């Protein structure tokens, strides 16, 4: 327990003397994180921003996104390239070449801004897509964001505070690198933003995401306490560097299937991005993210939802599982219309508590793409993907994919 709380104490103490200027809406807008695949509100319809005579502004925006995919066998997902799902012992039908066209990533977003005082705004934001299930022809509406933000407070459903969205490279692949911290949670977040530094702390809902005892099927669908997440960050026009701490409570059904027991997971993440080789109106960019912890599989893209936060060992004792995840990425801007991104990512899950040697041990993810923006509202891309899934026995499966993308913003 002392180790877990020490992580957050260090982050809180580092932030104590970093903030002496006044927070402002202009800073929040300047450093508002936007995922490369999120809706960009530089486009939009309906009314403009608040003015002295008009306190309310409304905007509707979104895009139509089509993905064409060619799989060279062993990939079992349509638009998501999930390395942990690559078959290690494939049957013949899983090795067949597959093609698909998928528009489920198309989305629309609504933003309302109310000018409460001359210096404070209330922002309400909602965003949806149609990626509610795996089948490529099943277009179920899916909530991506729903939150309100006033001053330093955010309440609602959005990217977890643990996710450094600005440190995410631009990709065609909807899933992204296997090691990225990527969940969205319902949360209450306090964010203190300064010109050169920022600090945030949040309480967030989460899934237990553990492997239950044999014969017990009712994985606890509630958690006794919210997750506590905090970060300290330095940022500027050059990029950002962030240190994040995660404390998560895991409530699980005991081996007798009578009571609920509790344990604590913890994690530390170091991430950021930095512009390099700036010239004219373009620059290259370097991205990185490294995460280590125990009981935080839910927060790591490739193993979230697989029950790897914790599992019982050979003695019947529930243990949190240690995980390491890291990625490096580089963006090269060829000119104002073309850019390329290369991504290398690695994840490892290893513990004496793992009895089943067919369970995942590590995954590897590699990607390279070329992105083209012929005009302001239109984007095209082509991306090559490679994935490797290795189990505890060191057996592995590999997969290759090529994806084409078109995006039309409105």
Q: Which CATH C-level class is it?
A: Mainly Beta
User: Rounded to an integer, what's the Rg over CA atoms?
Assistant: 22 Å
Low-pLDDT segments, ≥5 res: none
Overall shape: globular
Count of individual helical segments: 2
Largest beta sheet: strand ordering: 1-3-4-5-6-7-8-9-10-11-12-15-16-17-18-19
Estimated helix fraction: under 10%
Structural class: mainly beta
Count of strand segments: 19
Care to describe what's here?
The protein has 2 helices and 19 strands. It is mainly β. The strands form 2 sheets. A 16-stranded antiparallel barrel has the order 1-3-4-5-6-7-8-9-10-11-12-15-16-17-18-19. It is globular. The chain has helices at 2-16, 25-30, and strands at 56-71, 98-102, 107-117, 120-129, 142-150, 153-159, 184-193, 197-204, 227-236, 239-253, 260-279, 282-294, 310-312, 318-320, 322-333, 338-349, 360-375, 378-391, 396-409.
Give descriptors for this structure:
410 residues, 16-stranded antiparallel β-barrel, Porin, 51% strand, 2 helices, globular, mainly beta, single chain, two-stranded antiparallel sheet
Helices and strands, with pairings:
Blueprint: H1 2-16, H2 25-30, E1 56-71, E2 98-102, E3 107-117, E4 120-129, E5 142-150, E6 153-159, E7 184-193, E8 197-204, E9 227-236, E10 239-253, E11 260-279, E12 282-294, E13 310-312, E14 318-320, E15 322-333, E16 338-349, E17 360-375, E18 378-391, E19 396-409
């Amino acid at each position: 327990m002392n180790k877990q709380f020490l992580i957050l104490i260090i982050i809180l103490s580092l932030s104590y003397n970093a903030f002496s200027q006044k927070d402002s809406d202009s800073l929040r807008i300047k450093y508002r994180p936007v995922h490369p695949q999120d809706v960009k509100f530089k486009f939009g319809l309906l009314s403009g921003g608040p003015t002295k005579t008009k306190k309310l502004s409304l905007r509707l925006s979104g895009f139509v996104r089509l993905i064409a995919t060619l799989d060279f066998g062993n990939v079992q997902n349509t638009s998501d390239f999930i390395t942990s799902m690559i078959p290690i012992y494939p049957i013949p039908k899983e090795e067949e070449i597959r093609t698909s066209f998928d528009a489920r990533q198309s989305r629309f977003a609504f933003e309302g801004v109310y000018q409460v005082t001359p210096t404070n705004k209330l922002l309400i934001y909602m965003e949806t897509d149609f990626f509610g299930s795996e089948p490529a022809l099943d277009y179920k509406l899916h909530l991506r964001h729903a939150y309100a933000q006033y001053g330093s407070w955010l309440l609602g459903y959005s990217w977890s505070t643990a996710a450094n969205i600005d440190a995410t490279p631009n990709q065609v692949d909807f899933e992204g690198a296997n090691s990225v911290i990527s969940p969205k949670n319902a949360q209450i977040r306090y964010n203190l933003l300064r010109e050169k530094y920022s600090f945030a702390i949040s309480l967030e809902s989460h899934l237990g995401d553990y492997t239950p005892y044999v014969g017990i099927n009712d994985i606890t669908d509630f958690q006794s306490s919210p997750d506590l997440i905090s970060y300290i960050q330095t940022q500027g026009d050059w990029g950002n560097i962030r240190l994040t701490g995660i404390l998560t409570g895991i409530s699980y059904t005991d081996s007798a299937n009578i009571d609920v027991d509790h344990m604590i997971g913890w994690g530390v993440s170091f991430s950021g991005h930095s512009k390099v080789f700036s010239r004219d109106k373009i620059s290259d960019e370097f991205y990185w993210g490294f995460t280590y912890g125990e009981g935080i599989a839910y927060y790591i893209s490739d193993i979230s939802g697989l029950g790897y936060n914790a599992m019982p060992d050979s003695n019947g004792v529930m243990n949190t599982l240690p995980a390491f995840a890291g990625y490096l990425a580089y963006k090269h801007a060829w000119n104002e219309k073309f850019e390329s991104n290369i991504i290398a990512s690695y994840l490892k899950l290893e513990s004496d508590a793992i009895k089943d040697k067919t369970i995942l041990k590590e995954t590897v993810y590699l990607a390279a793409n070329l992105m083209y923006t012929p005009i302001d509202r239109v984007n095209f891309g082509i991306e090559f993907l490679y994935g490797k899934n290795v189990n505890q026995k060191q057996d592995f499966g590999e997969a290759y994919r090529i994806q084409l993308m078109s995006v039309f913003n409105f």
